[in-house]
Amino acid sequence: MNNLNVLNNYKKEFYFNKPFPHIEIDNALTDKVYKKLEDEYKTIITYLEKNHKFKNNIRLQINSEKILEDSFFKKSIWYDFVKFHTSKEFFQQVMDIFKIDIDLNYSNINIDNSKEILGIRSNKLGNNKSNFVIDCQPGINTPVKQKSSVRGPHVDNPVELIGGLFYLKNDNDPAVGGDLNLFESSKKIYFKGKAEVYNEKDLSLVKTIRYKKNKCIFFLNTLKTLHSVTPRSESTYTRNLINFVIENYSIKNGYFQMPRKGNLLKKILNI
Known about the structure:
271 residues, 8-stranded mixed sheet, 24% strand, disordered C terminus
């Protein structure tokens, strides 16, 4: 057992089907391991400060390829954390957890993990040789000078099969918000922009998962995986989180297509 594995404490009772398949784990890591990760998160923040201008409450993150190749991270616990969470072992564990719902939603996926080809998500040519790519991205939402949300109701990229989050809220951070809202709808949902919900009024809030320390969340990405981040109050602290993704670029157009309101209007008007 790897003591850095955010799924070490997973139990079947942490799996939920409503409003879409997801898991929640409180106290995912031991206090000792979590404390070291938290203490060394300054490595992540320092790197982001050097390479980005901090605007009000925006998302910044570092992909696993950069962390595993850049000597800046070699001596940090975050190098080992990212290395494990992009491994075949971790990939298989996540796929096993969601296997039943993957089969129900995506019958064309072969979950015989021993035959799958896994790669680390990369901007380099040749990335599409892998059946699946995996990424583990330490990141932040920058300090909040004016209350705002980083993202309204949306679904993730259709090439993504599994998404995940690990929260590292600072004990001294007074901010309220930055929580994860999960929605459902009895009506057809349309989308705009990147993947934002057009008809938000047709959404019903089912659950709010609080942003707090040592909290782990994973979910199956489908057309019904509607979620958002709640507005966060003013704070000089960053909102620290890890983003996990398992994607497949070999499936043309991704796992699902998003109905677009603009496309519907064009069809009606015959333009």
